[in-house]
Amino acid sequence: MERNGGSDTEGDDTPLLHRGHGDKVTRAPACCSSRYGLALLSSLGFFVVYSLRVNLSVAMVDMLNNTRHSSTNHSGSVCPAHANPARPKHNHTASVYDWDSETQGWILGSFFYGYILTQIPGGYLAGRYGPKWLMGFGILGTVVFTLLTPVAADLGASYLIAVRVLEGIGEGVTFPSMYTMWAAWAPPLERSRLLTISYIGAQLGTVVSLPLSGEICFYLDWTYVFYIFGAVGLVWFVFWSFLVFDSPNTHPRISEQERLYITGSLKSELSTSAGHIPWRAIVCSRPLWAIVVAHFSYNWTFYTLLTLLPTYMNDVLGFSIQQNGLLSALPYVGCAVFAVVSGQLADYLRETCLYRTVTVRKCFSVVGMLGPALFLVAVGYTGCNYTLAVTFLTVSSALGGVSASGFNINHLDIAPSYAGILLGITNTFATIPGMVGPVIATALTKQNTIDEWQSVFYIAAAINVFGAAFYALFGRGSVQPWAVHASYSHGD
Questions:
Q1: Which of 93, 98, 131, 479 is deepest in the core (most CB within 10 A)?
Q2: Which residues contact 324 (CB under 8 A, 6 or more apart)?
Q3: Which of 305, 42, 43, 54 is CA-nearest to residue 164?
Q4: What share of the chain is helix, strand, coil (3-state, %, to 5)?
Q5: Which backbone phi and psi does 97 adopt, to 5 degrees?
Q6: Residue 303 scores a pLDDT above 90
Q7: Do the Cβ atoms of 103 and 158 come closer than 8 Å?
Q8: Which residues are CB-neighbours of 166 under 8 A, at least 6 positions away?
Q9: How many CB atoms lie within 10 A of CB 24?
Q10: Are 175 and 434 in contact (CB under 8 A)?
């Protein structure tokens, strides 16, 4: 990787903490700090967000009338079924439904039709009115509709689709809100650490909710999946309301040292015209479109696995509902671990080794996209080798976690003042895979053969490779001139 130095960089390449004594910023301790407290609480928020998003993927397996859909063999699986322990009788009290594969695809993808609507508005509203309450009420709304899911399912598939769309509308503001908040809270040389801690909650939510949903379905019934996770969301909202503040300057309990450290390190990066949004420059920014393409490509693979992995485990590999959730969670355990490690490594390379930001972002993005593509294709050739299939899926998802310190946080590098809006734009495009991916995948796997699933994996891998190449060519790591009047760079 290329280090700082040379004439090919924009502006001042010297990282913030290594400048001259005239503008030196004294680092505030991380232990018990407000910024790391925010990272922890926002991580719990994203834990709730993803728990509510993915629990339907597991519950769906139990919501279907399997006596209708699988008369030929156990659960209709391609591979020999695994031992399925006897289930408690009382867990058959919940309703089951005769939804065909097309209807299932629309139900699983419907969340994203609402999610896409509030991405850009979420970034704009967070910047104008503050991110704290926008994120808080967005998650609270999702919690309320999650609690209504069993009622909607009983009323019919169309009602369930409508409720999932409304859940998506609530969750759509969460990521743009947090990017706006981190623009005011994250010192440049701690961005990778803070943001990976914050967003690791999304992976942990997936890791916990997938196996726990399977256990809940097994010992209770699928309706409790929505009631239990909904209750957790209500508890989180209470803590968020009392402990979080929009910026260091509005936090009543932050130490003066930490407040000065954060505001001093960001003063040269934030726009001096808070009321002006350079929409034309944003839309025409090539570095932004590099993030858009990378985000879209990565999410095609991510959402394909997120929504359909439990189905693959059940219909192809023959795992029971109890085994399904645990095994479906394994890939996200790896992703969570790699995301945290990559955050520490990325900031170490930038701060201590003085590698350029753009170099670090591109390398981590390429590894986090090409690696998953390779192992995802390999999954299609494992046949009924359960161990190898689960291993390759886990490695694929784990390597994807590396991109958490790549394109995923590049918005804050190129335009911290407008990070929420930029995230809204990129996440709008990156939500499309969640809308169409499950529909296309279910259309391609009507017979649930291994050959059909190979096509699904090949498509996802090809899109990932294209996204990695595009970002490697056009990605940037410095604050763009349109994002701040006194342009500043710490390592493009």
A1: 131
A2: 58, 61, 214, 310, 313, 314
A3: 54
A4: 75, 0, 25
A5: -130, 150
A6: no
A7: no
A8: 114, 141, 145
A9: 12
A10: no
Quick one: pLDDT at residue 44?
Answer: 96
Q: Can you tell me which residue has the tokens 């594969």?
A: 101
Determine the Cα–Cα distance for residues 219 and 225; give it in Å rounded to an integer. 11
**Chain centre distance of CA 482:** 28
| Number of other residues whose CB lies within 10 A of the CB of residue 60 | 20
Q: How far apart are CA 409 and CA 401, in angstroms?
A: 12
Residue 467 in this model has a pLDDT that exceeds 90: yes
pTM of the full predicted structure? 0.76
SS (H, E, C) 13-36: CCCHHHCCHHHCCCCCCCCCCHHH
Give the CA count within 13 Å in the CB-facing half-sphere of 152: 20
In this structure, the dihedral spanned by the alpha carbons of residues 415, 420, 421 and 422, taken in order and rounded to 10 degrees, is 50
CA 428 to chain centre: 13
Q: What backbone phi and psi angles, to 5 degrees, belong to 488? A: -140, 145
Any residues with CB less than 8 A from the CB of 206 and at least 6 apart, and which? 50, 51, 54, 306, 329, 332
For the ranges 104-108, 277-281, 307-311, 381-385, the lowest mean pLDDT is seen at 307-311
Looking at residue 49, what is its pLDDT? 94
List the one residue out of 362, 259, 455 whose CA is nearest residue 1: 362
Predicted confidence (pLDDT) at residue 298 exceeds the cutoff of 90: yes
Share the mean pLDDT of the chain: 84
One-letter amino acid for residue 434 of the chain? G
Query: What pLDDT, in 10s, does the model give residues 65-107?
Result: 765 544 433 445 677 766 655 555 545 677 888 888 778 878 8
Q: What is the pLDDT of residue 161?
A: 95
Task: Please report the pLDDT score of residue 108 as a whole number.
Answer: 82
Which two tokens mark 414?
């190129």
Mean pLDDT over residues 415-430, rounded? 90
Neighbours of 84 (CB within 10 A): 14
Name the phi and psi angles at 462, rounded to 5.
-65, -40
